[in-house]
């Protein structure tokens, strides 16, 4: 995963400070290297190196580059180790073309060998470097930059968003995409390209969304989009409602803790989608099966949806990992509703699955990013209202996804009681966040644990899975979530003296059985941290530590509230271990490569 930016200014001011500012907003998409390329005096200037943005900038002074247009990149390595040579932008051997790229070129080795035989010289280990060489090759054959890019994408295979500049065509940026995100911004001072809207919110709020295979040309006069037959495409312009401030830390130490604290607002705002969801339900009609397709955190939200829809509406519901979807595609039909859940709306596995599902079934996307690929390809869309999420570990988008699922299930089942309970959730979340100091103190006790187990039943089982995932993502502690009833089928053998076991145990139908499981692990020496009701005296007596949740939180809505302390535990353990929760190793946000 990587992030790309491009900008061409209408005036003659240097673009490097703007490129640097924009690409800094995409650090959550990749942070093992950074690079900028600008054009001035008939040459391309490049500064790039491995390392985090602030480290490279301190060494190279990235804002001190001439030229009023250019491109920039942050990298999360896929091909080639993090290094200066492997950092983007990449150029051809004559430094006539510079390219930034997000995605994977699957046939790069075959292309590279052919180009080497033609005399091209390569410097990096990346798949991306074939792109500037191909563009140079076609420009040497008298194609202009736009058509050299067109011929290049006819050859390369895989997912990509590409932006290119050439000394042969100054004052122009050409870009294209396939299965990797790319947006175009129209601002008062210039025109912009980016992988995601937070990069350019400060400079442009009017946005164009290029489709796969379209070519975008930016120059001082404006933006032109061509289809594969060179026809001009009149693109609809959307205005982003997010403010630049929403993508800033606003005094918080990290984006993750800021976004945890924004969860009540995310729920309140997403509840406003009730009428839209009701309209969707009225249109889909005669659905006999529902299938959720998702990855990671969104998969856990989907599991909660399965419990809700089957228990409330009685419709058989499956949950399938997007990467495994193709193995179940033959079971789809026109009576199936396939629901795709994705924070970014650009998840590669989900997009491929969506294309398959559209051939046979009704499709619905639950997405946080307006204008993203899923919103444009799914037949129906529920827009979560979490606002921009910068932290790699999903928090507020998770509760926003859950809120959308709860609304869908309640309206589908005509369950007015659940709709009333949902209105209380924001206050319950805010109340839970008031215990942050207590949770912080508890977290200090678990800093040196090497293994964690999370247990839950029914609606609380996906919460246990998500709690374990948050721990793994940012603390690098091994954590496993289990359905509590599975203990005796293997995991109990791993319980030993002092191992932390987090038990999610709200009051309700599953309480007694979950309490029995708590006692099982406690009797084997586990250190039990329970998340349960504030009036549960029995729980307080049996667990080593208890994080108390308002006793009015019913079991059915517990996933929306009980996840909050689990997020906080992961966050504060991470701080104790000296890690950056916003930038976990080996991970980046919005995974658009398979």
Structure commentary:
The protein has 594 residues and is an alpha/beta fold. The protein is 35% helix and 23% strand. The protein has 18 helices and 24 strands. The protein has an eight-stranded antiparallel β-sheet, covered by helices on one side. Helix 7 (263-270) packs parallel to helix 12, helix 8 (274-284) packs across helix 12 (396-412) and helix 9 packs antiparallel against helix 15 (460-475). The model has no long low-confidence stretch (mean pLDDT 93).
Secondary structure layout:
Elements lengths: L2 E7 L6 H9 L8 E8 L2 E8 L2 H8 L8 E7 L14 E2 L5 E9 L2 H10 L12 H11 L4 H11 L2 E9 L6 E6 L4 E4 L3 E5 L11 E3 L6 E5 L2 E5 L11 E2 L15 H7 L1 H8 L3 H11 L4 E6 L1 H17 L4 E5 L14 E7 L5 H10 L4 E6 L5 H5 L2 E4 L12 H17 L3 H18 L2 H9 L6 E6 L3 H16 L2 E6 L16 E6 L5 H13 L3 E7 L3 H6 L2 E5 L8 H19 L18
Parallel strand pairs: 15-16, 15-17, 17-18, 18-19, 20-21, 20-22, 22-23, 23-24
Antiparallel strand pairs: 1-4, 1-10, 2-3, 2-4, 5-6, 6-7, 7-8, 8-12, 9-10, 9-11, 11-14, 12-13
Helix pairs in contact: 4-5, 7-12, 7-13, 8-12, 9-12, 9-15, 12-13, 13-18, 14-18, 15-18
């Amino acid at each position: 995963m990587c992030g790309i930016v491009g900008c061409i200014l209408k005036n003659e001011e240097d673009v490097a400070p703007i490129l640097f500012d924009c690409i800094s907003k995409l650090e959550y998409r990749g942070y093992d290297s950074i690079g900028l390329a600008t054009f001035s005096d008939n040459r391309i200037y490049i500064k790039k190196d491995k390392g985090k943005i602030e480290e490279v900038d301190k060494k190279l002074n990235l804002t001190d580059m001439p030229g009023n247009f250019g491109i920039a990149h942050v990298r999360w390595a896929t091909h080639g180790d993090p290094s200066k040579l492997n950092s983007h932008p990449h150029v051809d051997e004559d430094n006539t073309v510079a390219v930034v790229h997000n995605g994977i070129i699957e046939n790069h080795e075959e292309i590279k060998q052919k180009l080497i035989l033609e005399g091209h010289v390569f410097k990096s280990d990346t798949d991306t470097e074939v792109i500037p060489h191909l563009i140079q090759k076609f420009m040497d054959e008298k194609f202009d930059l736009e058509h050299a890019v067109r011929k290049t994408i006819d050859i390369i295979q895989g997912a990509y968003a590409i932006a290119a500049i050439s000394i042969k065509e100054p004052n122009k940026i050409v870009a294209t995409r396939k299965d990797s995100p790319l947006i175009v911004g129209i601002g008062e001072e210039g025109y912009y390209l980016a992988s995601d809207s937070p990069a350019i919110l400060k400079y442009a709020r009017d946005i164009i969304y290029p489709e796969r295979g379209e070519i975008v040309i930016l120059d001082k006069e404006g933006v032109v989009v061509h289809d594969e037959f060179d026809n001009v495409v009149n693109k609809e312009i959307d205005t982003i409602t997010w403010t630049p401030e929403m993508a800033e830390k606003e005094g918080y130490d990290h984006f993750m803790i800021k976004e945890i604290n924004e969860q009540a607002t995310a729920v309140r705002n997403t509840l406003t989608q009730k009428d839209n969801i009701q309209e969707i339900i009225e249109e889909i009609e005669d659905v006999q099966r529902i299938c959720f397709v998702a990855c990671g955190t969104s998969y856990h939200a989907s599991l909660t949806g399965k419990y809700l829809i089957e228990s409330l509406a009685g419709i058989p519901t499956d949950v399938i990992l997007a990467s495994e979807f193709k193995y179940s595609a033959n079971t789809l039909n026109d009576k199936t509703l396939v629901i795709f859940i994705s924070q970014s709306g650009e998840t590669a596995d989900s997009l491929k699955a969506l294309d398959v599902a559209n051939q046979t079934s009704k499709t619905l996307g639950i997405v946080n990013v307006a204008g993203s690929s899923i919103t444009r390809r799914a037949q129906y869309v529920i827009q979560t209202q979490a606002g921009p999420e910068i932290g790699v570990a999903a928090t507020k988008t998770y509760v926003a996804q859950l809120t959308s699922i709860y609304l869908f299930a309640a309206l589908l089942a005509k369950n007015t009681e659940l709709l009333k309970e949902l209105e209380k959730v924001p206050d319950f979340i805010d109340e839970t966040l008031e215990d942050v100091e207590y949770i912080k103190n508890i977290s200090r006790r678990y800093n040196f644990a090497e293994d964690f187990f999370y247990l839950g039943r029914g609606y609380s089982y996906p919460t246990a899975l998500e709690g374990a995932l948050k721990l793994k993502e940012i603390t690098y502690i091994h954590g496993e979530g289990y359905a509590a009833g599975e203990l005796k089928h293997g995991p109990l053998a791993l319980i030993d003296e002092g191992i932390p076991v987090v038990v999610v145990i709200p009051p309700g139908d599953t309480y007694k059985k979950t309490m029995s499981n708590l006692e099982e692990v406690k009797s084997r020496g586990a250190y039990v941290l329970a998340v349960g009701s504030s009036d549960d005296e029995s729980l307080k007596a049996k667990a080593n530590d208890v994080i108390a949740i308002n006793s009015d939180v019913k079991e059915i809505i517990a996933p929306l509230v009980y996840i909050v302390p689990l997020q906080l535990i992961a966050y504060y353990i991470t701080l104790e271990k000296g890690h950056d929760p916003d930038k976990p190793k080996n991970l980046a946000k919005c995974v658009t490569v398979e």
